[in-house]
């Protein structure tokens, strides 16, 4: 059942309370699996972000490096050149609600690099979405402790270029639960309060099709930490594995799964199609 949640951020700011939040995906990359190259320039990425904001995104998640399976890494300098100008321009914009309140989405940056995270936070970002849980660049822990942003703690098994090479778990849900417990302790010791953290079990990141569905069947387990669950399954390859769908045909599957997960308490949904997702989640809210 949907219940209002709040995600606390740095500087006394907070997202919510609300029953759900939508993070709109803005890939400033040439090689992302779904929309690579469509918004690869800063100007095009900003225009796309503005469209997602108008459609009802609560968060704009800006990424400058593809983390799809077998993607090649990019340099710190290249990622900063892609991401920071977009963050800076978006952070200077505002959108007003019917009562005159500021309803411009929060800005998130999808990065595992400490240098990119620090530069993005200085430019106005408020959330760091890290696929590595600080494993790829350990200095990111220090950045999180210093700035205390919102943080998406995600589970993955290995790096994107190798994570789908025969992933194995004795029990995938138990393994992720232990992973979250250990990482939350590290983050708290570094100075990042637990209330700043949301948990992403990492669909498709070092998981087989069966691993992914074991996670989704047992999604309530991850709520035992008392933190919001963040879900990223928009148009991913599990829909090809289950239904034989190519990337352009996965929207309906994404919407059905998103609605089912929201009804079971998943609060934050990272998606490509923001307007459709807001429709789906509004229906769930009214029927829950």
TrEMBL record:
One MF term from GO for this chain? metal ion binding
Question: Which keywords appear in this protein's UniProt record, sorted alphabetically?
Answer: Folate biosynthesis, Magnesium, Metal-binding, Transferase
- Pfam assignment, any one: Pterin_bind
As recorded in UniProt, its EC number(s) are 2.5.1.15
Give the top-level enzyme category.
transferase
According to the entry, every stretch annotated as the Pterin-binding domain falls at 20-282
Q: Which reaction does it catalyse?
A: (7,8-dihydropterin-6-yl)methyl diphosphate + 4-aminobenzoate = 7,8-dihydropteroate + diphosphate
Task: Write out the transmembrane intervals.
Answer: none
The family database entries (InterPro entries) matched by this protein are listed as:
DHP_synth-like, DHP_synth_dom, Dihydropteroate_synth-like_sf, Pterin-binding_dom
Its UniProt pathway annotation is:
Cofactor biosynthesis; tetrahydrofolate biosynthesis; 7,8-dihydrofolate from 2-amino-4-hydroxy-6-hydroxymethyl-7,8-dihydropteridine diphosphate and 4-aminobenzoate: step 1/2
Entry-linked PANTHER family: FOLATE SYNTHESIS PROTEINS, FOLIC ACID SYNTHESIS PROTEIN FOL1
Q: What does the protein in this record do?
A: Catalyzes the condensation of para-aminobenzoate (pABA) with 6-hydroxymethyl-7,8-dihydropterin diphosphate (DHPt-PP) to form 7,8-dihydropteroate (H2Pte), the immediate precursor of folate derivatives.
- This protein's name: Dihydropteroate synthase
Species: Pseudodesulfovibrio senegalensis
């Amino acid at each position: 059942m949907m219940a209002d949640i709040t995600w606390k951020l740095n500087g006394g700011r907070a997202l919510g309370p609300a029953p759900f939040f939508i993070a709109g995906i803005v890939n400033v990359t040439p090689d992302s699996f779904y929309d690579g190259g469509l918004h690869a320039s800063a100007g095009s990425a900003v225009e796309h972000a503005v469209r997602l904001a108008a459609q009802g995104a609560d968060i704009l998640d800006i990424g400058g490096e593809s983390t799809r399976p077998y993607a090649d890494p990019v340099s710190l300098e290249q990622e900063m050149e892609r991401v920071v100008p977009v963050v800076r321009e978006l952070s200077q914009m505002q959108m007003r609600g019917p009562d005159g309140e500021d309803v411009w989405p929060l800005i998130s940056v999808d990065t595992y690099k400490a240098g990119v995270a620090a530069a993005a936070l200085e430019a106005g970002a408020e959330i760091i979405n890290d696929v590595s849980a600080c494993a790829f660049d350990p200095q990111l822990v220090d950045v999180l402790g210093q700035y205390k942003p919102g943080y998406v703690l995600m589970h993955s098994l290995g790096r994107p270029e190798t994570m789908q090479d025969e992933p194995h778990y004795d029990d995938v849900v138990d393994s992720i639960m232990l992973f979250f417990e250990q990482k939350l302790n590290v983050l708290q010791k570094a100075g990042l309060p637990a209330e700043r953290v949301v948990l992403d079990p990492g669909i498709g990141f070092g998981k087989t099709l069966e691993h992914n569905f074991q996670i989704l069947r047992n999604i309530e387990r991850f709520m035992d930490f008392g933190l919001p669950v963040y879900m990223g399954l928009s148009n991913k390859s599990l829909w090809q594995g289950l239904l034989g769908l190519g990337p352009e045909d996965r929207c309906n599957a994404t919407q059905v799964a998103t609605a089912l997960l929201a009804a079971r308490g998943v609060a934050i949904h990272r998606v490509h199609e923001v307007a459709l997702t807001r429709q789906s989640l509004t229906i769930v809210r009214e029927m829950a």
